[in-house]
Fold this sequence. Notes:
The protein has 343 residues and is of the alpha/beta class. It has helices spanning 47-54, 82-88, 100-103, 110-122, 126-139, 145-148, 158-170, 188-205, 240-245, 250-257, 298-302, 327-335, and strands at 3-16, 19-32, 36-40, 62-64, 69-72, 75-76, 93-96, 176-180, 208-213, 225-230, 233-239, 307-310, 314-317. It has 12 helices and 13 strands. An 8-stranded mixed β-sheet has the order 7-8-9-3-10-11-13-12, sandwiched between helices. Strands 1, 2, 4, 5 and 6 form a 5-stranded antiparallel β-sheet that branches. Strand 5 (69-72) and strand 6 form a beta hairpin.
Amino acid sequence: MDKLLEVKNLNVSYQTYAGEVQSVRGISFDVQKGEAIAIVGESGCGKSVTAKSILRLIKKPGVIKDGSEILYNNENILQFNKKRLSSYRGGEAAIIFQDALASLNPTMTVGKQIVENLVLHNNLSKPQAAEEAVRILEMVGIPNATKRAKQYPHEFSGGMRQRVMIAIAFACKPQLLIADEPTTALDVTIQAQIMDLIKDLQTQLNTAVILITHDLGVVANLAKRVIVMYSGKIVESGNCRDIFYSPKHPYTKALLNAMPRLDLQNKQQLSSIDGSPPDLIAPPIGCAFSPRCDYCMQICLEQSPEYTEFEGAHQAACWLYHKDVPSNIFTEFTEGEIKCQQI
Ligand code: SF4
């Protein structure tokens, strides 16, 4: 597979009255053409800021720091001029947000919103684009598409509105789609339909997808690879099977154990992760997960862990894999139960 996107040493900060919030702290990853990956982590871990950076949607007081690189087909999008950025955004790369009602233009019919995109990026005439818009609405499963194209966003249900967002995003057959918590605001049954729709379109159009989610339950059906973020850094990455069945980082393991499961007995409680993420105005010098980690050692408080590589491009940033770690601590962690058996 060819590389579509390379994120290198991405640092994003927000200037606030209290100080500089370091939302994303030196992350690097890549996405191949047509590949689906997921970025997971709890709120505030930097996953949505990463998504917005890839589309250059970071607004002041946010800033993408010098030294960061985001290469799309080997072009650095951080150096795109206005014209190039406009053909990239909406044409070659698109985004779906959680809140479709807030993202759609309430004063324009949904058909017109798709037409606008097609005229801008695909050089279609308005009548051609109007015809194409109806076809796209049909493709995303909107019944009576000709009639519905003339309606406004408030006339659609939540699930149908998300389908409209997907129609707009896929209208120009983007090479890259970012789906930022696309199902969080929807009922569970609708969630599954929307994820199936994104997967179908991804396969049909060979679009690379970056799914941003805090919900590990929606990851496995779509993504082949998972990136786990914590406090602005990538703490673990690997293919789905490795992450779900053989997590290496205590945070990933804790996330998996906090997932609801069908096999939980009535009185069994879900695990939770005690404590809260650190203040990103003054992140810890060592491992950011150390205040919440059951296996924390002295070195974890003093030095940020390097990545350890495992089989199959699986890697994790944790001192537990250092050769000098006492074997009792390592054994206690590796033999601890992974309760999730969802995939
Ligand atoms: Fe826990 Fe230390 Fe690993 Fe951080 S580096 S996750 S504190 S064991």
